[in-house]
Design goal:
The structure holds two protein chains of two kinds.
Chain A: H1 27-57, H2 63-90, H3 93-113, H4 117-145, H5 151-179, H6 184-205, H7 211-224, H8 244-258, H9 263-273, H10 275-279, H11 284-306, H12 308-327, H13 333-360, H14 367-396, H15 398-427
Chain B: H1 3-37, E1 44-45, E2 55-60, E3 69-74, E4 82-88, E5 91-95, E6 98-105, E7 111-117, E8 123-129, E9 132-138, E10 144-151, E11 162-169, E12 174-177, E13 182-185, E14 188-189, E15 196-202, E16 208-215, E17 218-225, E18 230-236, E19 239-243, E20 249-255, E21 264-270, E22 275-278, E23 290-293, E24 296-302, E25 310-316, E26 324-327, E27 330-336
Parallel strand pairs in B: 1-4, 13-18
Antiparallel strand pairs in B: 2-3, 2-27, 3-4, 5-6, 6-7, 7-8, 9-10, 10-11, 11-12, 13-14, 15-16, 16-17, 17-18, 19-20, 20-21, 21-22, 23-24, 24-25, 25-26
Chain lengths: 430, 337
């Protein structure tokens, strides 16, 4: 086992010395980042105004929505694994990702004609399924296009562009509504256009590389010359993911996920105390996103140099600090802003880094499945955490609940640090 | 395709798509400007409405000037000209000389607030709401104001749609979120994770109120006690209660189709006999019912084919009563007797 939780290198078996390859971002990653940027403008502009549209324009109430959202998250998690597996098995990562992006883009058309609650919730479900389909294959493509020793930084570039889109989307939607009250259809048309632009970037600019075929060709080319095209395609096997490093990553991600409450809860704690947070409640996510997008690349770089797993663990320290900050009895704007910066730091230090770690611990032939598996583990364990935290919220009150969550996270942090330390000394040489 | 050809195609497609989106936005903007500058599509009168005349206060959704403004018509002539005020509200209620208004302030920072207006529609005070306005009610003497808002989440906060219902005192201060009250279902304390409360209606004693409690797919009509801070279930599958003027019955919406696409019937509970009457209205009604008088109900319905326009309908309280159009291009009625 070559895993070290403090590895400084890319961690691939063939890199035994610290490399000094200069960082050069692949145009594929920039293109995929732009695909995500446009897609996030598309999806986040709709998400931001959808509740207003349903209540204000259609005159419907929203109560069933939260329940459905939970179901959609669950569906999305399982679709994700399936799509990752399909991408690996067929070796058509771009095609699977394209179908996922396409499904989400096309679902916007439905918004222009749907007026019933049932129709709108189906459209949202289709959008979520599209999101579930595209994520694994897309992250596998990023992983394959990146320089192994700069993997986390490459993911940082992608996540930065992605978050720029997620920040622009709602702002764009609200600007449209500011000029055209009731102009929801103008928002949906803009969203559709952005979704299709993202799809066009993916379809036209991003090359469809057969990753496994490329690996085999390279191997065959090394060994015996030009007969690579005739080599049998390597088959996808789940056992490729069943390695100690991957198992440990999934374990660590799962136990962290179990103590990661949704930031919606943190916003609610802030809002219950600080009038500043109440007034700016709809914009709190912008604060988090701005911190995330500013820190995504620098922290990716730190992860590559200092150890990805190490930063992943430290990132959860930022989450702990955010919990404590939210629990502080002071109610000023400073505490609220500090909390948002800490949340953004947490995402910047963990989201892309998790994908980088999962990509690092899987083979090219199993990468989409490996990344999808890690993301599914995180999504499902966080769903459990949110339900558990909800119980605490009502039984002991929000202040106590967030302190208990902080205590649980602190305990998990100590455990993980001990786990990591226990492994380190013997594995550096592996 | 060469790299150059690919980029040419991309630029072309992007330009066409952006042009279409911007063109549609510009067209919508022009249409909106036209609608705004057009004269009101219904008869309106200027001036202050005499609050001592029995009247209906509502949100005017007739296109043209005054769209979205609070308006009123006398009860004896609801089809007559509307008196349109300067107040813009999503939900309105009026009782005991207190006017409650929930509104959305559109902007790059879209915010939501509750405001209290005096009887002659001067804004007295306002406070922020944590989400989209949903329901509001004022106690009969005008001293208490209830508001329900949908607290909205975003992509990073799954399953975070919930309601926040607060009873505030008109003079200042509030009783906190109703979720913090002790919920008692079928005689036993019940504290589910996903509990939500909405749709308050007040009894005249300034202590008793009724509301909806929900967990998962279940809803209950609950009786609230402000002194004891309790909510006690009295009926299952009932939402958005509304107490009749004589205090003997509660009208509410009753979901007949569990699942993602609810269908709400109007039902009435007789408090003394505990009997439920489901009315004949076949359309799904998603509103908090208002009592026009002890024999007639009012409720809003989206207007077919028009996004952002509604009508107020009326129906009798017997099972076979046929619904009638009461007031066109109107929403959120409050009857002031």
């Amino acid at each position: 086992m070559y895993l070290s939780f403090s590895d400084r290198r890319g961690g691939k078996a063939d890199q035994s010395v610290r490399t000094t390859t200069p960082f050069k971002i692949s145009p594929i990653i920039i293109s995929l980042g732009l695909v995500s940027l446009f897609t996030d403008i598309s999806s986040e502009s709709v998400s931001a105004v959808l509740p207003l549209y349903i209540t204000g324009a259609l005159g419907l109430s929203l109560v069933a929505y939260g329940f459905l959202d939970g179901i959609n998250q669950g569906i999305s998690a399982f679709v994700r694994i399936g799509a990752g597996w399909t991408a690996d098995r067929s070796d058509h990562h771009k095609l699977v990702a394209f179908l996922g992006y396409g499904l989400s883009a096309v679902s916007r058309v439905g918004l222009l004609v749907a007026t019933g609650f049932g129709a709108i919730t189906s459209i949202i479900a289709i959008d979520r399924i599209g999101k579930g389909i595209r994520t694994g294959p897309r992250d596998a493509m990023i992983s394959d296009a990146a320089q192994p020793e700069h993997l986390a930084r490459s993911f940082g570039v992608h996540r930065m562009l992605d978050t720029v889109g997620a920040t622009i989307g709602p702002l764009l939607a609200f600007v449209v509504l500011l000029f055209i009250p009731n102009g929801y259809h103008a928002v949906f048309v803009a969203s559709l256009a952005c979704g299709l632009i993202g799809l066009a970037v993916l379809g036209i600019i991003v090359p469809a590389r057969k990753q496994r075929a490329a690996v085999i060709a390279a191997a065959a080319g090394d060994a015996e010359g030009k007969s690579a095209a005739n080599a049998p395609r390597a088959r996808f096997r789940w056992t490729e993911l069943n390695n100690p490093a991957m198992r440990k990553l999934l374990l660590v991600a799962a136990i962290f996920g179990l103590v990661t409450i949704g930031d919606g809860f943190i916003y609610l704690v802030l809002q219950s105390r600080a009038s500043f947070a109440t007034q700016w409640f709809p914009l709190l996510y912008v604060g988090t996103n701005v911190a995330y997008l500013l820190l995504a690349i620098p922290l990716g770089r730190v992860a590559d140099r200092w150890g990805r797993m190490r930063l992943f663990v430290v990132g959860h320290g930022a989450l702990l600090a955010a919990y404590l900050c939210a629990a502080l009895p002071t109610a000023g704007a400073t505490a609220t802003l500090a909390c948002l910066v800490l949340l953004g730091t947490f995402y910047a230090a963990t989201d892309g880094v998790l994908a980088a770690l999962a990509g690092q611990f899987s083979t090219p032939a199993s990468r989409a499945s490996g990344i999808a598996a890690a993301q599914t583990v995180v999504a499902l364990s966080r769903l459990v955490a949110s339900v558990g935290f909800g119980i605490l919220w009502f039984t002991v009150g929000r202040q106590q609940a967030i302190l208990l969550a902080a205590a649980a996270l602190a305990a998990v942090l100590v455990c993980v640090v001990l786990l990591v330390r226990g492994i380190k000394p013997t594995k550096e040489s592996a | 395709m060469t790299s150059r050809a690919r980029w040419t195609w991309l630029v072309l497609i992007t330009a066409v798509l952006l042009a279409m989106a911007i063109g549609y936005g510009a067209w919508s903007f022009v249409q909106y400007q036209k609608r705004q500058s057009a004269p009101a599509s219904v008869a309106v009168t200027a001036g202050i409405f005499d609050p001592s005349t029995p009247h209906v206060v509502f949100r005017n959704t007739a296109s043209g000037a005054g769209y979205g403004h609070v308006a009123s018509v006398p009860l004896n002539n609801p089809q007559g000209p509307r008196t349109v005020t300067g107040a813009v509200c999503d939900r309105i209620y009026s009782a005991g000389g207190t006017n409650a208004c929930l509104r959305t302030n559109a902007g790059i920072v879209t915010t939501f607030e509750a405001a209290i207006y005096t009887a002659d529609w001067q804004q007295e005070r306002e406070w922020p709401l944590p989400g989209i306005p949903s329901r509001t009610r004022v106690s009969p003497d005008g001293t208490l104001v209830a508001s329900t808002a949908f607290v909205t989440g975003h992509a990073y906060a799954p399953a975070s749609f919930s309601t926040a219902t607060v009873i505030a005192k008109t003079a200042g201060g509030d009783f906190g979120n109703l979720e913090d009250f002790t919920l008692i279902v079928d005689g036993k304390p019940f504290a589910p994770v996903d509990r939500n409360l909405w749709g308050v209606t007040f009894a005249p004693d300034d202590n008793t109120f009724y509301a909806t409690a929900a967990s998962g797919a279940d809803t209950w009509l609950v009786r609230g006690d402000l002194d004891k801070r309790t909510l006690t279930s009295i009926l299952e599958t009932a939402e958005c209660p509304s107490l009749s003027p004589d205090g003997t019955r509660i009208a509410y919406k009753k979901n007949a189709v569990p699942g993602p696409s609810p269908h709400w019937n109007i039902a009435i509970l007789d408090l003394a006999s505990n009997t439920e009457t489901v009315l004949a209205e076949t359309r799904s009604v998603d509103d908090q019912i208002e009592w026009l008088d002890n024999q007639t109900l009012l409720y809003g319905m989206p207007r077919d084919g028009t996004v952002g326009d509604n009508d107020i309908w009326s129906t009798g309280v017997t099972a076979e009563s046929a619904p009638q159009l009461f007031l066109e291009h109107a929403w959120s009625p409050a009857v002031v007797r």
